[in-house]
Amino acid sequence: MRASSLRVVRTPDELRAACDGARARGERVGFVPTMGALHEGHLALVHEASRRSGFVVASIFVNPTQFGPTEDFARYPRDLGADCKKLEGSVDVVFAPEQGAMYPGGDETRVRVTETAAHLCGRFRPVHFEGVCTVVAKLFGLVGSCTAVFGRKDYQQLAVIRRLVRDLFLPVEVIGHPIVREPDGLALSSRHAYLSAEERARALCLARGLSAAVAAFEAGELDAAAVRARARAEVERGADRVDYVEVADADRVVPLEDGAKIEGRALVAIACHVGKTRLIDNVVLGEDPAPLGLIA
Ligand code: PAF
What we know:
Elements: E1 7-9, H1 12-24, E2 29-34, H2 40-52, E3 55-60, H3 80-87, E4 93-95, H4 99-102, H5 121-124, H6 128-143, E5 146-151, H7 155-167, E6 172-177, H8 197-202, H9 205-218, H10 224-238, E7 241-248, E8 266-274, E9 277-285
Parallel strand pairs: 1-4, 2-3, 2-5, 3-4, 5-6
Antiparallel strand pairs: 7-8, 8-9
Helix pairs in contact: 6-7, 9-10
The structure holds pantoate.
């Protein structure tokens, strides 16, 4: 529990000054970037940042550049007051900028990671990772040297950000935090606010698909296409539309081709639509347990 009360800052200069001040006092800065609509998954990231650092910052900014023209930017849930209540006692500073503060008029710079961002979500959301990299690079520029914590539910995002930090020599230690799930296996997401009860039940097809993949792998199936087919069959039972079910290299996030064998570990990643809501989830075979226990 942090002693000081939560301070909300709105401008880049205030954020930079707060972080510089903490470092000048000898504190490590922990940073959790978010788009708000906070749930237990975000709070786990904050807890991890707090465990690792003396001074914790969370940003809340629904970043327009990472949404495509037909995506849910306008209806993305926004409630700064409720989010700040959830963070009270756990973070020192919340950075909640207006759009014009992050993208002032005349702003021209965009940041693009190539191969790691090209597959999976990159194929279906062509502007997404460029928007994420741009805003995260801006945030890292303001926060400065820090430990930044991201959730592994956005596995490809985490891999892309690791690549960004490495390629641009940014003074940021990136930590990936395990996925937080509901008791029934559904991975927590701010977008669950969009689901009806019937859709919420069908959304379990992602956890079922991943569990089927883990079961096949643990039973000795190493053929990537066979594992993918097992997962896809479960996803298709619940989803209205499947963007992808992929088995991919867990470091490069490049899909394994038909005929490839899984060596050691591999990412199984799913993106599908339930009603109007796009959901993602993943496991790393050889590391993560099945979200639902094993499906035979
Ligand atoms: O994961 C998210 O919430 C967003 O993509 C991030 C990293 C805060 C950038 O807007």
